[in-house]
Amino acid sequence: MVDKIKIPLGIDLGLTNSCGAVWWNENIEVVANDLGSRTTPSYFYYDGIEGYVGKTAKDKTATNPENVFYRMFYFE
């Protein structure tokens, strides 16, 4: 059986960028995303088939802006 440890996690969901951090070895470590950046653009893209977040979603604003979400929306 693998021992499980509890690690505190913090998430900053910003309007422009977001990031996540963990408490590890008595320090706060900001987690890098898949591109190596410690912040991720707060963008979401979905076209009914595929979904992306971060820089990939932000890049879609050039070709398919109607399917990119990057501000606060209120749905009723």
TrEMBL record:
Asked if Aminoacyl-tRNA synthetase is a keyword of the record, the answer is: no
What molecular function does GO assign, one term? ATP-dependent protein folding chaperone
Q: Which domain of life is it from?
A: Eukaryota
Record keywords, A-Z: ATP-binding, Nucleotide-binding
- InterPro entries annotated for this entry? ATPase_NBD, Hsp_70_fam
Q: What is this protein called?
A: Heat shock protein 70
Which lineage is the organism of this entry classified under, starting from the top rank?
A: Eukaryota, Metazoa, Ecdysozoa, Nematoda, Chromadorea
Q: Which family does it belong to?
A: Belongs to the heat shock protein 70 family.
Origin organism is: Panagrolaimus davidi
